[in-house]
Amino acid sequence: MPTYTVECHDDLQNVKDLWHDIQTENGYDSPLHDYDVVSAWYCHLGGGDRPRILSLWENSNRCIGIYPMLLEKKYGARVLKTMYSGALSINLPLVRKAYRDDFFTLFFQAISSSSLRWEIIKLSWFPTYLKPLESLNDSFFRKMGFRSFPIDDIGYGVDLQKEFNSYFNGLSPKTRKNVAYLTRKLNRSHDVRFEFLHNQDALDSWESFLDIECSGWKKKCGTSLAQNPPYRTYCHNLAVSLCREGSLLMAFLTADEVRIAGMFGYIQRGVYYALRSGYLEKYFDYSPSNLLLVEMVRYFMIQMPDVNRIDLFPFDYGYKHKWSDLHEPYRTFMIANATPFSKLLYFFYAFKMKHLNKSKKGLPRNQAFNGQ
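-> structure tokens emitted (372 positions)
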């Protein structure tokens, strides 16, 4: 019967060869797990936390998965946490395909018997609609000897496995009427077209997207990529990797040859992840970002039927609920081991989050720049 052990590394460079070996075997099917992307995340978005890369081994001679994480010192505790930055998070491990369904079971079994020192493990923002994550719940962690509690943020998305008319008719009457009115208004005064750019064509339009995004409310709040150099650099590195892997897709709404709204995202395993969007403030009255989203839904349903969902991520910002027909949580797990200090921290975290959810119901837990 095979045995499983965990090794801890403090530098991604230490597992570079292992990383590339798993990527090659998997056929590079996970854009966010490109080595250069993960390295850039640590460099630009890691903040003051220390990298901790955990490798899972079968019989001590075959690495079956690598989990890039961070070590944070908080309240005197060692908190191992996933790479969280809102929509720009890298929260899942790189795992050989044959082990994906069982990875978390094997990983936590190995963690429970290892000498790795930690008080809390924080797994942030897991989309619950992904199959390998369905088994993660309180019962799962109790069997491993851990205490845990989940924190849910409602995720917004669009189901593309239907006809466009079915989706559109499912919107509220007010929303449908507004879309029709704004579309007529825009077409009366401008020559309108939509662009859907893939890979190199999209990458060539990167600066154009940045100009659009650094406008409107994001510019006023200081949350655009152009105003945040670390995020801008990381997102460009990500776009280059997505282009190389063939999964980059950017869309624009153009009026009189001027791009007035744009969206930046990528496709992975049948899901379009809408990472960033923006519009030119001058065209605010047309709600161009919303018109672009509606047209993107139509585009995917007709031109790319293999894409079955648009993931808009959590945090509504006052508009996502209007366009979403999927509302599945993104779940964060706080996991404590069996030591007395960990148990104390567990009750502290549980009390804190329960109080926070009551006092800020309906608001994002983290109001800082979160990647969208």
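The chain has two domains: 4-153+330-359, 162-307.
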